[in-house]
Specification:
Two copies of one chain form a homodimer. Chain A is α/β, with parallel strands linked by helices. Chain A is built from 16 helices and 16 strands. In chain A, strands 9-10-8-7-11-12 form a six-stranded parallel sheet, with helices on both faces. The first copy, chain A, has a four-stranded antiparallel sheet with strand order 15-2-1-16, with no helix packed on it. Chain A has a four-stranded parallel sheet with strand order 5-4-3-6. About 5% of the residues of chain A have low confidence.
Chain lengths: ~450, ~450
């Protein structure tokens, strides 16, 4: 059967899948967890094949880390399933119940979206998370993972699918696409697929968006900012900034740009730079930022304020603070850069409003943070910054479905429609309106014989 | 200034517009209502110009009815503004508040989408509704109406914009595009426009979708069904069906296809056909449906059941019931037809499941109704039919923002993402996540030093 035939069939059965009770869906999740546990050696063996192939083709260590599926990753997956089991049923929630007139009652009720296509990177744990999110939410899903983990994916998918079937989930409701050409086939199925979620590089997500009429939910870039306000606690700022930049640089929620209020730049910037340098971070920035670091370095001190002295000591006492080299001077448009590496853009601003304007213009509407002790400044920042996540005094790295308590995520949306930020179960649901009557016709309301009274019953 | 320059500026000020208090937004609405009231003669004079031009170009009467803006339409617009004033602020609603850990609190709060482009048909009242929805919701908007009402639109827009400014809405937050070429300019502004809402013909909506990277919310077809179950009350069914088909045929929520359970077709179909014929409806249908009408006609009666006798009498006593002519016999694919006219497709089905399968396959996921006294059949239908509106025992014509109590609508979405069905204020909102911390870093949670406890505070 072609992908198209599979997917059309999936579209036909999707209302039946959507109507399965949450007991069946939870039973399927428990059955999946049991199957993964009891077949762990089989999974690990398949994963060793993938790793050996990767080794031979000389893949980078950072990538291999993502390919690996071991006891630790399995335990995370099982914990994720437990967490999904504990979450309430996302389907059948009545979010509006309104009597339009005597005996005419309108309800809005959450239902699964239907058929979802998810194309994801070479990470076996992603396959488990995504298929379990689809099972719990009552959606049908076509899954296409990265080819580097083809062997692991095959074993995992077969186990998950068999386990779901054994619990009563209808045949054909999950499908794994394995060939790369199948992506292009899938993109053509706009009459059968309700939503596509591509994960991966920006270029890849853009390719998908440009080559399909299926609605796409994805994220473009992760250009996140940390803005250190003039009223920031500098120690807290340096601690949060360091985490946001260095804790996991390859993540889309890592900070790429540091904005500093001009009033505190002379003292804060050299101290922060010293700490970042200790963590291997290279700084790029505007001439103004470079000059401040240069001056701090020339004064052979860079640690004017008592508050930041501790950090300077940590960074090697009062030696020169790190500089921004001539090659790393930045013009305006350079700030649209996602590094995913130990590199940080630096710019000074004169106000919280200017920081927000910079973020709205050069950011990617993902996650941005203000470090401040000033409630009014925080309020202004969180209102004016037009991003999925607006944070105060904590690391941008918190932008994540698990950390938000969603059990898991299928991705992070930087679009503003449907779902924004980390997308968990709720992002895989839509709603329908039910109207219950006993013979009402519109002509009676048009003529004035009847009239609406709109009484909310919830 | 080009449309692009205008829209880019709009994007920059949109966070400021979004942060205006609801008091300012309501004051703007009151100011708009006052301006429309006191300048009514000016508006009507401009509308007479449009109508004269339409007359000269020989536009159809049905279209002219839409172009007209008179005391009656103005009263409807003012009532709509009153209704918007009475609705609660759609912005700033906290829909999730969760303590992730001690001192780390996540909130999800509703915010305006930002910059919305709306391209709508030649109906001056639509311009008023749409701009008022945008003002109430805190969105910036680019409006492009049909050229047939250019004079009326100009006067209306200028009044609305001035009134909004006088109440404190920022300059540049509303823009009227007047030239047709400006639509193509607007379609290019995917970096500045957050959402496009095209209204009009299917071909037009499809053109917009195919020529922009801006997310589009629109409806394709309105192929709505009324399914008469075997347990239906035939009198109620005929009354509701007649309204759904004939009360306003040009609307997308008018019924285009009648499905009848085979067990009652012999009696129900001739009676329904007689009543529909009285209302000028031409029937098309399958051979099976045609045969039943033919047989009823030949028995020179068509009114076997006592229950439907009254309808047969109304339709001219026991004369021949209407037939389906040879030209109007339908094959499978003919059922994908939106008539927007006094024409109805007819097909028999053997079960509620078969009705649902037909609707999911040939319908447009807009609004579909079951007529039944059987609760179980209604439940099955409303679960299996994958449409924005699933109705029981009432006319499909109820699918409308006003009738749902939304105050107004910008359109009806047949897509499943973001908003489904009639789109009012809520459909013009998105949300952002706010995270309030006091120095939390992800490294502490990765190392196990800290852990999340996820406590919902709402």
């Amino acid at each position: 059967m072609s992908i198209r035939d599979h997917v059309c069939l999936m579209k036909e059965i999707s209302p039946v899948v959507a109507s399965m009770s949450v007991d069946v869906r939870n039973a399927a999740l428990r059955s999946v967890a049991a199957a993964l546990s009891s077949h762990r050696e089989e999974i690990f063996a398949a994963n060793r094949e993938d790793l050996e192939r990767a080794e031979q083709s000389g893949i980078a260590d950072s990538v291999k880390k993502r390919l690996r599926f071991d006891d630790h990753k399995l335990a995370d997956c099982l914990a994720g399933i437990d967490s999904l089991l504990s979450l309430p049923d996302p389907a059948g929630r009545v979010t509006l119940r309104r009597e339009l007139d005597e005996g005419l009652v309108l309800e809005r009720v959450s239902v699964p979206i239907g058929v979802i296509g998810i194309i994801f990177e070479a990470r076996p744990d992603a396959l488990v998370q995504i298929s379990c999110l689809c099972i719990k939410s009552g959606n049908c899903a076509v899954l296409k993972g990265g080819r580097e983990t083809a062997s692991t994916n095959k074993v995992l998918f077969d186990l998950i699918y068999e386990a779901a079937l054994s619990a009563g989930i209808p045949e054909g409701s999950l499908l794994q696409a394995s060939g790369h050409s199948e992506i292009d086939e899938l993109l053509e199925c706009d009459d059968c697929v309700d939503l596509l979620i591509p994960r991966g590089s920006n270029a890849f997500v853009r390719y998908i968006m440009d080559h399909t009429k299926i609605p796409v939910m994805g994220h473009s870039d992760g250009i996140c900012h940390t803005y250190v306000d003039k009223s920031a606690d500098p120690d807290l700022a340096i601690r949060v900034l360091t985490d946001a930049k260095t804790q996991y640089t390859a993540a889309c929620n890592a900070t790429e740009t540091l904005l500093v209020h001009r009033d505190i730049a002379d003292t804060f910037l050299p101290a922060a730079a010293a700490q970042l340098a200790q963590n291997g971070v290279r700084l790029r920035g505007t001439e103004e930022a470079a000059r401040i670091l240069q001056q701090a370095s020339q004064s052979n001190d860079g640690c004017g304020s008592a508050q930041t002295e501790a950090h300077c000591k940590e960074a090697g006492g009062s030696v020169n603070s790190p500089l921004i080299s001539a090659d790393d001077l930045m013009g305006e448009d350079d700030f649209r850069k996602e590094y995913l590496d130990l590199v940080l853009s630096v710019k000074l601003v004169g106000s919280v409003e200017e920081a927000a304007a910079h973020i709205n213009r050069f950011g990617s509407h993902h996650t941005d943070c203000i470090i401040t002790k000033d409630d009014a400044a925080a309020q202004t920042f969180m209102t004016l910054v037009d991003s999925a996540g607006v944070y105060r005094n904590c690391s941008t790295r918190f932008a994540d479905g698990f950390r938000y308590g969603f059990g898991a995520e299928v991705g992070i949306s930087t679009g503003k429609l449907h779902a924004r930020g980390p997308v968990g179960l709720e992002g895989l649901m839509t709603y329908k309106y039910r109207l219950h009557g006993n013979g009402q016709i519109v002509a009676d309301y048009a003529s004035g014989k009847s009239s609406f009274h709109f009484r909310d019953l919830l």
